[in-house]
């Protein structure tokens, strides 16, 4: 069954673009212009792209949007004192707003970047001549470089936001603590999943090298591995702090009911 849904062009409502979501090339169609239902169909159509990199970025973008709402509610609340508002405003203008566009843009960017690798992989699998297969294997290695850099960047942006947010947590509006902590934990999870993608790409680079007897840039490989390790160390420290927030609430309500 074909899932063809008309999309309205951003600048001209009279222009309709009919997109078959089951066959569309989403490296050329902006995922952010899809309606949410279309967005979900795009991920569930059984194709290599959009994939987990774009999905990670989408999760992080939703978390950023929720943090924007929490900050706005805090800044507009009449019972929040000025000192707290100043702290929230510094986080909002100095950390959240500068990083959020990078996170959002990664939704589409990951699909574009990973599509280059996928095209060479398809050509590699279809080829029978050794020299053609080596050509595409070499280009697969080249395409894995930006496909590795992007999740590293995404993880870094997510940690920058979440680390700033956890410092600010007690200053945010109490009635929005669910959105606050849930968003910060979502950003930490995105950083964890993005780091895992980096390790997968490095492992695939090793496999391509061994199978096709192609030289691998060992300096690049080591640099990315060490970068991923550093990101993961930051993520674990952040996760520990976030867990303390939820554990303290659990302990408080347990004590109120005499359960501890």
If you had to describe this structure to a student in words, what would you say it looks like?
This protein is mainly α and 260 residues long. The chain is built from six helices and two strands, in the order E-E-H-H-H-H-H-H. It has helices at residues 36-43, 52-76, 82-126, 130-168, 177-212, 218-256; strands at 4-8, 16-20. The protein has a two-stranded antiparallel sheet.
Mean pLDDT over all positions: 88
- Order of strands, widest sheet: 1-2
Q: Tell the overall outline.
A: elongated
Number of DSSP-assigned strands: 2
Radius of gyration: 22 Å
User: Helical element count?
Assistant: 6
Please give the alpha-carbon distance between the first and last residues.
Answer: 56 Å
Described by strand count, sense and barrel closure, the largest sheet is: 2 strands, antiparallel
Estimate the strand proportion: under 5%
Helix content: over 70%
Q: What is the H-and-E element order?
A: EEHHHHHH
Please identify the structural class as seen in this structure.
mainly alpha
Task: Indicate the low-confidence ranges by residue numbers.
Answer: 1-18
């Amino acid at each position: 069954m074909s899932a063809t849904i008309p999309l309205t062009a951003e600048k001209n409502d009279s222009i309709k673009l009919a997109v078959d979501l089951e066959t569309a090339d989403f490296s050329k169609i902006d995922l952010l212009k899809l309606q949410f239902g279309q967005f979900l169909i795009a991920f569930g159509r059984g194709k290599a792209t959009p994939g987990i990199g774009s999905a990670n970025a989408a999760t992080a973008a939703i978390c950023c949007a929720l943090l924007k709402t929490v900050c706005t509610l805090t800044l507009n609340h009449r019972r929040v004192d000025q000192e707290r508002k100043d702290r929230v405003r510094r986080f909002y203008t100095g950390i959240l707003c500068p990083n959020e566009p990078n996170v959002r843009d990664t939704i589409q960017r990951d699909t574009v970047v990973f599509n280059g690798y996928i095209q060479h992989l398809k050509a590699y699998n279809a080829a029978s001549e050794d020299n053609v297969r080596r050509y595409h294997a070499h280009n697969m290695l080249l395409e894995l470089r930006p496909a590795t850099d992007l999740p590293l960047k995404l993880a870094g942006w997510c940690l920058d936001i979440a680390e700033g947010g956890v410092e600010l947590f007690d200053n945010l509006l109490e009635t929005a603590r669910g959105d606050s902590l849930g968003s910060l934990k979502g950003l930490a999870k995105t950083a964890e999943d993005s780091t895992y993608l980096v390790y997968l790409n490095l492992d695939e680079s090793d496999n391509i090298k061994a199978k096709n007897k192609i030289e691998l840039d060992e300096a690049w490989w080591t640099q990315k591995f060490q970068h991923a390790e550093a990101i993961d160390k930051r993520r674990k420290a952040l996760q520990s702090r976030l867990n303390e927030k939820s554990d303290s609430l659990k302990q408080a309500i347990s004590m109120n009911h005499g359960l501890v």
